[in-house]
Amino acid sequence: MGQYFATVARGLETLAAEELVALGAHGVEPQFCGVAFQGHVELLYRVNLWARLPFRILVHLAQVPCQDAKALYQGIQRLDWSAHLTPAETLAVRVTGKNRQLNHSHFTALQVKNAIVDQQRHYWGRRSSVDVQTADVQANVHIQRQQAIVSLDSSGRSLHRRGYRPAVGAAPLKESLAAALVRLTGWQGDVPLLDPLCGSGTLPLEAALQALDVAPGLLDSTFGFQRWPDFDANLWQALLQEAQARRRPSLPVPILGCDRNSDVIRQARHNAQACGLADQVRFFQQALATLDAPADQGIILCNPPYGERMGHPAELADFYRLLGDVLKQRFKGWTAFILSGNKELARHIGLKSAQRFPVYNGSLPCQWMKYELY
């Protein structure tokens, strides 16, 4: 049984652990910015294909001493790389963490690379080429005090990049965070869902992908493990066919997104087209001030600007007051969720939150605030 580690955004560890359990993982253990778990190769493939919250799925190889560069080199050399990498495959090394002796990631990566290719020269008489962009095999080394955790990156790219979003707005949410925010609402696809400040459409699109049971990996089904020497193509094809068969044909309720900016709405429609949802999610141009509820009940969710990358906090206070007024006056019977990275601005909404979920948008601490609208 393999030992795996899913890297996730800070604050989403518990939610990601629940997702991994649902996918069949064993020994699930939330840790800082990730979740350790166990399973066989089928689970490794399945998690890459289906998990919505992780960035990367790492396969644990070993833990080696790294009190200095020499110790790290020797520890990497003691591992048998022939089962994971032949000279025909390209190699990249990614290093995270540091200690007193190994405090420069590029230098540390060179030590790891040298240890691997020197072993290859001894074993094969030739070595892999380095490809930092699209390597067949990426070795991950995490320096943690005097130990280095050595893993292989089975994903090859960050899983949050679904492949449908070449068009983004000025301050886009990562797809993985958007998926987590939708999940935190508890929405089951039983009532309409609306984002009145939809930007490039990430929240409505991730909601639609969940409601239609679309595996996110189907949108860009290229993964690091497909280039590994032991890749099981038949198993992977069976998992792809299973995922394609599970996709539901249509949404049971409307999913809507609007924005006052016509260019932004064009971006959102382009993204919907790219992930096959152009006929499922409706994007339309409309200003918040003129927006009415499209049904008697539903979920409204949005990521308004909060002054970090868009606008100035002092200029946004009026906008937050407007948002609160629209919710109070026109969305009675709905439940609203608002992402806020600015507590002062959030106060201008003028509503008492029923619940708050702490999350991080990148490195910025935020609150996903729930409002019951009566």
TrEMBL record:
Organism domain of life: Bacteria
Its EC number(s): 2.1.1.-
Family annotation (InterPro entries): DNA_methylase_N6_adenine_CS (IPR002052), RlmKL-like_Mtase (IPR000241), RlmKL-like_Mtase_CS (IPR053943), RlmL_1st (IPR054170), SAM-dependent_MTases_sf (IPR029063), THUMP_dom (IPR004114)
Residue intervals of the THUMP domain: 43-154
Keywords: Methyltransferase, RNA-binding, Transferase
GO terms assigned for molecular function: RNA binding; rRNA (guanine-N2-)-methyltransferase activity; rRNA (guanine-N7-)-methyltransferase activity
PANTHER family: RIBOSOMAL RNA LARGE SUBUNIT METHYLTRANSFERASE K/L (PTHR47313), RIBOSOMAL RNA LARGE SUBUNIT METHYLTRANSFERASE K_L (PTHR47313:SF1)
Name the UniProt record assigns to this protein: RNA methyltransferase
Organism: Halomicronema hongdechloris C2206
